[in-house]
Write a structure and sequence with these properties.
18% strand, alpha+beta, binds zinc ion, 2 domains, 181 residues, 50% helix, globular, two-stranded antiparallel sheet
């Protein structure tokens, strides 16, 4: 096992040695960065000209399995609002936490650091699709990142903005838990 630091969530998680994780930081274009990574991975120069995802504005993770190894990379745009950069980054880190099955660590961290108590297991049972499960949990992680770094007033204000198609489902869950404090 090894320890991986997640900077936006401000926590460490332990993962098997076969898992690698890289935070590429802020990039100019999500699509161009994905193309670059695909080119590096495959050696196929055609990857560099793939324009299918060039309109993405949010950070993206990708996941690759080869010889029993799991590789994760996260990267995101800087839209000059510090709340949304940290939220996007926390969102992507949460995708990673979810994928390596460490949501219980995140749940503990949320409870002990800011007092927000959300039971992910119960929440996941109530969500219909796999994609919605992934995205709603990631949105909650993003809000926690804003909360932990900038405080409860910042996260209240920020969660009024619906940044993704899942925000209208995730944000009220976070706000409800926050209002219980
Ligand atoms: Zn996502």
């Amino acid at each position: 096992m090894k320890k991986i630091r997640l900077d936006a969530l401000m926590m460490d998680i332990k993962v098997p040695d076969s898992v690698s994780y890289v935070d590429d930081g802020v990039v100019d274009s999500i699509g161009a960065h994905e193309n670059f990574l695909n080119w590096k991975r495959t050696g196929d120069p055609e990857c560099l000209f793939d324009k299918t995802k060039l309109n993405d504005v949010a950070g993206t993770t990708y996941f690759q399995k080869g010889s029993g190894e799991y590789r994760f990379r996260i990267f995101y745009l800087d839209d000059s609002d510090p709340n949304s950069v940290i939220c996007t980054r926390g969102h992507e880190e949460t995708h990673f936490v979810h994928a390596v099955k460490r949501l219980d660590n995140l749940e503990n961290e949320m409870r002990t650091s800011v007092g927000v108590d959300i039971n992910f297991k119960n929440l996941l049972k109530k969500i219909d699709s796999k994609n919605a499960r992934r995205e709603i949990v990631a949105e909650i992680g993003g809000l926690f990142a804003v909360h932990r770094r900038y405080g409860s007033e910042a996260v209240k204000k920020y969660s009024m903005k619906y940044m993704s198609e899942f925000s209208h489902r995730s944000n009220p869950i976070y706000l409800k838990a926050l209002n219980k404090l």
